[in-house]
Each structure stands twice: as C-alpha cells, then as structure tokens.
C-alpha cells in the first residue's frame, strides 16, 4: 500500500510495475499535483489541469495497481492496517508492506489563524483562491475612488523568500508591469507594490549566497521590494505587522497576502512516532534508516517530504520538494504552452498554438468555431477571468 500521490508515492507505484505485488495507492485527491508550478496557476499563466493529471489516468496501464480516494486518518502498525475516511464513511485496509508518502502542508509556526488572510500554496484550491484574490485586487482598485483603499488593494505581500516566494513575488510584479499594463482605465497596474518578506537575512537561504544574490537582483529589477530579517508577527484582513531586526515595528496595509514561509510534515509522522518510537525533526519529518524504513518495522517506509535521513553517502537533504526548483521568470515566448514536464497531460495540438501572454488562457469562442482551427484564427480567443472557486471576502 502507498499513501500519497505526490512525487514519492507515484514514483513508488510506477517502480513496482513489474513487481509480483498488488499495489494500492490511496490519496485524498484524484490527481497528481506538480507543485513547483502552482505559482503559475495562481497568476493565471497556466490552467490547473496542466499540472494536475488524474492519477488513475497515469496508472491506467499498470495492471497490478489500483487507486482509491480517501483521507488517511491513522496507521495501525501492530495490526498492519491503514484507516481512512471518505464522504463520512470509514474504511480499514490491511497491508503487507507500506510506503508513506503523505507529503507536507503549509506551516504558520503556531499561528494557524493567519491562513484566513494569507493563504499558502500547497494545492490547486490554494492556487485558485490566490488567483481570485490577485486579479480581484486589481478589479476592486479599478472601481474604487478612495486612493487609500486603492493603495492597499494594489499592495501585494509575499511572506517567505524561499523558491516559492521568490517565484510568486516575481510573477506578480511581471503581471502588473507587463501583462496588465494599459488594460485598465482608472488605475495603472504598474503602480502595484510587491513586497517580499523573510525573517532570514538572505533570499533563498538554503541555496547559498551566490544564487540568493542573483535572485535578489533579478527581483529588484522587476520592482519587488525585499525586506529581510523581517519577522511577520501578525496578519489580519487589512494587512500585516512586521518586526525588523533592530526592533522596530512596521504596519503594512495590504489586501492580498501570500504565505510561503514554511512547511510541516503530514501528521501521520506523529502517528508513526507514537507507535514505533521513531524520532521526528522540528518540521515533523520522520527520521528513517538508510533504506527509508522505520526502526522495528522493516516493511514500513517513509519517503518524500515526510522523511529525514542523514549519513547516507551521496544524499543531501534539500528544501521541500515543492520548493526544490530554482527561481525562474517565465519567458513570454513560452506562455500558453504546457510546461515540458507536464506537456503529456495537455492537448496534442498544444505545441502548434501561438503563445497566449500573461494571465490569459486559450478558449473556444462561442460565436464561431471551425474544425481544425487554432488559436489566433477564427474560432479561438485569448481570455482570462477570476476563478469562480475563489471565496473572496470583498
């Protein structure tokens, strides 16, 4: 049995394709999510379907594998049973060998109430929520005659200067300075203020000073304001409070806030530790052996963002898998095309389509359509809209 359909779980399932074993993969979603590109969904560069192919579709030709939907609530190591729930019904599934790849979630460092006002970016729902808030901020500013309110609406704050935060801040700045430039009548999107904050003294601290300095200069060139050694102490509807290294307190009025400051491993790690005595690190990751098993249970393995392992030659722990890609600025020439890593999940005609810039997505025109037509010709149009899934508190 495999818990989780992320990189670790899906790789494990595919690796067992020719094994003499029945493979059951259980996950809380029906798709595999390519998390490194969530920030592009959040800013409308790509659609959510391009980074979330159905797990069953991926494994449909693997005869020894089945996918079941469910939220794993606990693991009984003694009885070798996984307990899960789905739509109010409880299930118990026995296993011979278990691979736990339940990943990690957003960490607010004990301030979970921040989540209401500063969403993280760990799921498709998170990205769609942020897309609505980001684009909604410009739309509200367009209709507001109050300069103070406009300034708050057009101030975007990103907490956390790791890869996700760097990418997000840069993409919002590019959205304001390039994609939306000249498209509004009552506001100038280039007046938007994008602020990147981190309690650490450097950008991209896990990647060393050379890369961090390069990312900082690139962001500053895009117009992003960077505040380092700046700890966010409070977040509310209208903004956030920051404590700087010299002890000064600053209040930033900002309607749209993004949280990318930390991760914590799945609570299943604690569940395993309580039964087996295995150690957890500060982020809740399970300290496994060189073969990724937990002590006393050679048939139970922990992989991906849930695991912590030291002392293995050639192995070095990196930040969360979702944050494992270097910062990059999407090139306009590739806009509208599926990212190479997930291109298999999009239309076979995608490669023929001209780029669709910024927050735009290609869609079939309701007024005219012709078989075989492509974007840029009759029957197609380039458009964007606020996500209907967003739950915006206007």
From TrEMBL:
Keyword presence, Flavoprotein: yes
The enzyme's E.C. designation: 1.6.5.9
- Stretches the record annotates as Disordered: 317-380
Q: Which reaction does it catalyse?
A: a quinone + NADH + H(+) = a quinol + NAD(+)
Q: What is its EC class?
A: oxidoreductase
**What are the protein's UniProt keywords?**
FAD, Flavoprotein, NAD, Oxidoreductase
For molecular function, the Gene Ontology terms on record are: NADH dehydrogenase (quinone) (non-electrogenic) activity
Iron-sulfur as a keyword of this entry, yes or no, is no
| InterPro entries linked | FAD/NAD-bd_sf, FAD/NAD-binding_dom, NDH-2
* Residue ranges constituting the FAD/NAD(P)-binding domain according to the UniProt record: 1-310
Record SUPFAM superfamilies: FAD/NAD(P)-binding domain
Q: Where is the composition biased (Low complexity)?
A: 321-341, 368-380
The family assignment reads:
Belongs to the NADH dehydrogenase family.
Database matches in PANTHER family: EXTERNAL NADH-UBIQUINONE OXIDOREDUCTASE 1, MITOCHONDRIAL-RELATED, NADH DEHYDROGENASE
What protein does this entry describe? NADH:ubiquinone reductase (non-electrogenic)
Organism of origin is Mycobacteroides abscessus subsp. bolletii 1513
């Amino acid at each position: 049995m495999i818990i989780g359909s992320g990189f670790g779980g899906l790789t494990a399932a595919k690796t067992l394709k020719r094994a003499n074993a029945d493979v059951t993969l259980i996950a809380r979603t029906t798709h595999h999510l390519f998390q490194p590109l969530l920030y592009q969904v959040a800013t409308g560069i790509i659609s959510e379907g391009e980074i979330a192919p159905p797990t069953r579709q991926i494994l449909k030709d693997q005869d020894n594998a089945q996918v079941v939907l469910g939220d794993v609530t606990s693991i009984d190591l003694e009885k070798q049973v996984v307990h899960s729930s789905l739509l109010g019904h409880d299930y118990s599934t026995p296993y011979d060998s278990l691979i736990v790849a339940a990943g990690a979630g957003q960490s607010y460092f004990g301030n979970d109430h921040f989540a209401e006002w500063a969403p993280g970016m760990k799921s498709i729902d998170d990205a769609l929520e942020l897309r609505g808030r980001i684009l909604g901020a410009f739309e509200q500013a367009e209709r507001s005659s109050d300069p103070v309110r406009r300034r708050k609406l057009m101030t975007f704050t990103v907490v956390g200067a790791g890869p996700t935060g760097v990418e997000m801040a840069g993409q919002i700045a590019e959205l304001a300075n390039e994609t939306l430039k000249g498209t509004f009548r009552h506001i100038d999107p280039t007046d938007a203020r994008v602020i990147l904050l981190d309690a650490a003294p450097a950008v991209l601290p896990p990647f060393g000073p050379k890369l961090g300095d390069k990312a900082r200069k690139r962001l500053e060139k895009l117009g992003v304001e960077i505040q380092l050694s700046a700890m966010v102490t409070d977040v509310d509807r209208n903004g956030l409070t920051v404590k700087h290294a010299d002890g000064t307190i600053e209040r930033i009025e900002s309607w749209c806030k993004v949280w990318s400051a930390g991760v914590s491993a799945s609570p299943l790690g604690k569940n395993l530790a309580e039964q087996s005595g295995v150690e957890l690190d500060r982020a809740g990751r399970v300290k496994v052996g060189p073969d990724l098993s937990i002590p006393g249970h050679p048939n139970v393995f922990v992989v991906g963002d849930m695991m912590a392992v030291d002392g293995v030659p050639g192995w070095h722990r990196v930040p969360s898998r979702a944050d494992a890609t270097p910062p990059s600025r999407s090139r306009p020439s590739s806009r509208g095309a599926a990212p190479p890593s997930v291109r298999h999940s999009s239309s076979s005609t995608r490669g023929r389509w001209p780029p669709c810039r910024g927050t735009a997505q290609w869609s079939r025109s309701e007024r005219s359509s012709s078989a075989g037509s492509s974007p840029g010709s009759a029957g197609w149009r380039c458009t964007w809209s606020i996500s209907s899934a967003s739950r915006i508190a206007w």
